[in-house]
Prior knowledge:
The protein is an alpha+beta fold. It is about 45% helix and about 20% strand. The strands form nine sheets. Strands 1-28-27-26 form a four-stranded antiparallel β-sheet, with no helix packed on it.
Amino acid sequence: MVHSAYDCLELVGDCPSKIESIESYGSKLLVGCSDGSLRIYGPEMESSDGSPPYVLEKNLVGFSRKPVLSMEVLESRELLLSLSESIAFHRLPTLETIAVITKAKGANVFCWDERRGFLCFARQKRVCIFRHDGGRGFVEVKEFGVPDAVKSMSWCGENVCIGIRREYVILNASNGALTEVFTSGRLAPPLVVSLPSGELLLGKENIGVFVDQNGKLLSEGRICWSEAPVEVVIQKPYAIGLLPRFVEIRSLRDPYPLIQTVVLRNVRHLRQGNNSVILALDNSIHGLFPVPLGAQIVQLTASGNFEEALSLCKLLPPEDSSLRAAKEGSIHIRYAHYLYDNGSYEEAMEHFLASQVDITYVLSLYPSIILPKTSTIHELKKLDIYGDASSLSRGFSGGSDDMELSSTSHMSESDENAALESKKMSHNMLMALIKYLQKKRYSFIEKATAEGTEEVVLEAVGDNFASYNRFKKTNKGRGSISVSSGAREMASILDTALLQALILTGQSLVALELLRGVNYCDLKISEEILRKGNHHVALLELYKCNGLHREALELLHKLVEGSKSSQFEITQRFKPEDIVEYLKPLCATDPILVLEFSMLVLESCPSQTIELFLSGNIPADMVNSYLKQHSPNMQATYLELMLAMNENAVSGNLQNEMVHIYLSEVLDWHADLSAQQNWDEKAYSPTRKKLLSALEGISGYNPEALLSRLPPDALYEERAILLGKMNQHELALSLYVHKLHVPELALSYCDRVYESSHQPSVKYPSNIYLTLLQIYLNPRRTTASFETRITNLLSPQNTTILKVGSTASVKTKGSRGTKKIAEIEGAEDTKVSLSSTDSSKSDGDTDEFSEGGSTIMLDEVLDLLSRRWDRINGAQALKLLPRETKLQDLLSFLGPLLRKSSEMYRNCSVIKSLRQSENLQVKDELYSQRKAVVKITSDSMCSLCRKKIGTSVFAVYPNGSTLVHFVCFRDSQNMKAVTKGSQLRKRL
Length: 988
């Protein structure tokens, strides 16, 4: 016996006649005896000690001529159905006989359908169905034949399940068709029991099988009785079976365990009573009264049968919902501890989850899990929990103190806590904890988020937070974040414990996902755990989610350096690009921090870092200023990479600064080589190449300032480019020709100037090639006062004039050099004056015998004319050439020039002829359009006099359709003239 589900009491003793059947009606017992009498027993008002509680109220002798084999009370119709020599119906409570079914004489078994009022009974090999018409009569509906005598039957929906021979069949009540179900076995007779749900319980030897109304097996399981039962009564949650030697009580919950055994000899019948089960013996009646559910729950819990106790909790009445919740919670906790102590950790956590116990109570079972300190104490005392639940049980059931005693003995021993503290946590224990925390986490995070949102809203409306008694918790990097003593504290405990459990079980990826989402992990504890376990990626996410970006970047930099040198053990290799990726979201919020840590990776991955600055919209001036202060060696790299990625993002000041940086490096390089007397004007270092490319490619720098920094006797190519930026083309070309002695550079310079000036937006194209010709033909003029002209060019007055863009001549008394510079500046027009040409030619004539041995560079002149004949005005070029120039030397210049002129002349002639022809065609079309045809018929009318035109002279208006007599037209014109004259006189 597991526990006492029923109390067995004797209700009636020493019945003078043998009891054949029994039924209950209200509080009364109806007993059918073997002598045909019906004895009615009722409860005694004042029971004396030791006597049965029921006394005989009435004895109906001669109720039936034969023993009353079976009875059934039809409560909804207030009828008593009895089976004796026939089937009779009696009205209750008077027991007046209202109908006797004579055809049922000899019947041995019957069943009643309460819903439809149908009676089915078996007599020999016949099955009859009658219907109650609502009054005193019964109407026969069907009668069917069956293979053998029926031993048991019951309605199943619209049909009848009957047990015949050793098998069960379903009888179709409409057509009498029989459907086999299965055999009932060899030893026990067939037993059909109707369940409250409308299904059936069929006996097969000592096994009770559940089938539906169609005879199909159900998956609920099987009731295994100790022996084959004779009768079975279903009283939820138990099934009571009458076995040959005793009464057996089993649970209706799978696996249908044995609950209680009641030993009574000679029990003949079981019957469902009013909140009890009635046992009929030969000469006495006993009753099985259910023990209160609360007492049963206490017994089951004390004996460790927690599953059964929980199933009984669900049967508590709805009005005791709070009591049921308390009892279920207490049982779940007891059961969880039992499972936990026996190694069933996942099942234990399921019951902790169902008990709704505080998570700190569960975490107390895991001493290795470190919990954050909170403003309130969340630990629950185990003794209090069990004491409350046990007191509720006693109050409901009036039962025992077993539960309280058991709980105190189970949970309050001092050595229990010591064992828990010293116990090693296994992998399975932690995995069960993880599943428990993950199931609890959603509601905790939801409440914590709602609490934070509430605070933000209250701050927005200016509410007073003092009334909420909020606990303020300050984390480094987060600033001051208000964490109340409620939901967010519990969320912090849960997330911190969950993170530790994940780390201890080796689930680093899951821990990383936890930190990447919304979490409330305690910073100090989590940092210590992750640092000890070398979980660097998770530690980075912890810093990131707490806003500790500086700490995260310092750790990331350390990991990057460690990946290079392998100074300390790391499980994952880190690259400088990881720092860049981390810095990207911080550009908008903390650009100074971005600049500080980007310096660490600028040299190793410059392009990614520059792209970071560009994509983050960090001001270039700020970046340049920071680089100048902390990493000047990377300043030029940043500027040139930024210029290569996005030229518009680099302002003129930054371009100027970049060029000055290049120039400083080139000047240092020049000074070193000059000191070693190894300077070569045609030597190019990488920096000098960058400088020349920057001087030519960008335009945001100040050429005057750069020109003043150049040495007087070196870096002529740089000087030439700067002079070109200042529109000093003659001086620039002079450097290429007379200092560098590289005509190709001079020609390239002219090409650039020509291409830039011959744009649709340029009104007056440049005659730069003629300037180069003059330099070739007049070397003395361009070299005699070169240094003086440069000095005057860089004077403050001229610098100011150049900055405002003045192209006018600068007239200075006694300054011949400035006058020439003004002439050069004014010579940008494509037309070269005749006077300048003549003077140039005369200079060329005299240069042949000038000091220094300078001669006319005729070969270069002829090469320039032959290569750029199509860009030079031939007539002006010929005027500049010396008279001694041979025509044969000009063949390569004049040949293509004349061919092009002839071709242009022919083309122009063709175009002129085409335009004349087009003009004639247009005129012809105009004449044809002006030509009009007017048809005069006999019906044509004058629009003025409304008479026919006939053969008179007529006129046509410009619209081509209005016809008038010429006389009428002339008169109308005269009338208009007279009218205009009179109006004019009136005005006068």
